[in-house]
């Protein structure tokens, strides 16, 4: 069980670009980063509106002179300080991720960036090279994968408790975009425009969470081929999709199906994952994250609860609340931020041995998400045909 002790040499001086007062995801970053005292928020360019960003930042306790108007000002302002920012989170719309990440790395600052990481695999590979040259970490906030029951599923697969994996069934749907975009706010506007969202809408916005979580649970399975069918039920969103289904063939013969949609009217189920093996299946949903369904063929179905001693050690060591008390998305984000902090700390200390075995969503995870999106788009735009995974 993790009890909030500092697991790194000293707290990291942390900043944010985006995630301001009106931003949807900013609080999740702060609740994840600030939970354990592993990070201290010292600077930010929180908002496109500089005055609102400064007001917001000072309300968070950041010194007014370290609430900057732009990320360029943040880099310049922090560069001359002995106590300058060491790691910055990028919680801005997709089209800005690449340029902001690149500028931060060039300035010698570690980056924690939102998904989908960038628009192309080529951009990801370029940034991976730059980060390696600079000796810096790029973390990616796949926030759900820090949950101890995700670790439990991965451990059960690794320990052979499900048998050979046969079926991967993934769903992340909601109905918030079931209507048209006449009165859409900024967050919907940029998500439905290819110039600001990138080559996908829901596939990148929510599908990348499904894909990364499945990679965490099934690290040894690789996709060989996939078929993606995407559609904009609201025509103004085309060529981007508000609904997609993806069929996947894995290299061990397993079959996968994935459904993402923001037009699943009335649905509040959010995410659901089912991994079916030759002996048993596990199923987890963030709608009831404390419970993991464990269905062994021929036996009564079981519900496993987080924090209970019958779970695998890999799950128990990252549990925070203990059994009987709810463990949710905030705890999951706190783990993700902690694991990224440990990677940054190890990098600073030159501890490459630690980094070899340490698991956290880094640049490779971000790159694989973008690679999956590129394959989905190639399949869908050729008329929903099977394509070899490249
Ligand atoms: P949003 O439109 O709600 O908020 C964006 C914020 O960034 C606003 O505060 C805006 O003022 C600010 N901003 C925009 N450009 C900026 C710039 N150049 N400099 C400084 N600030 C700038 O968007 P959102 O829904 O919070 O999404 C932001 C990112 O987070 C997206 O990449 C999205 O895909 C991702 N996201 C991830 C999760 C997750 O669970 N990991 C959840 C929601 C969103």
TrEMBL record:
InterPro entries: Gfo/Idh/MocA-like_OxRdtase_C, Gfo/Idh/MocA-like_OxRdtase_N, Gfo/Idh/MocA_oxidoreduct, NAD(P)-bd_dom_sf. Residues 12-142 form the Gfo/Idh/MocA-like oxidoreductase N-terminal domain. Residues 156-388 form the Gfo/Idh/MocA-like oxidoreductase C-terminal domain. It comes from the Bacteria. SUPFAM superfamilies: Glyceraldehyde-3-phosphate dehydrogenase-like, C-terminal domain, NAD(P)-binding Rossmann-fold domains. This is Gfo/Idh/MocA family protein. The lineage of its organism: Bacteria, Pseudomonadati, Pseudomonadota, Alphaproteobacteria, Rhodobacterales.
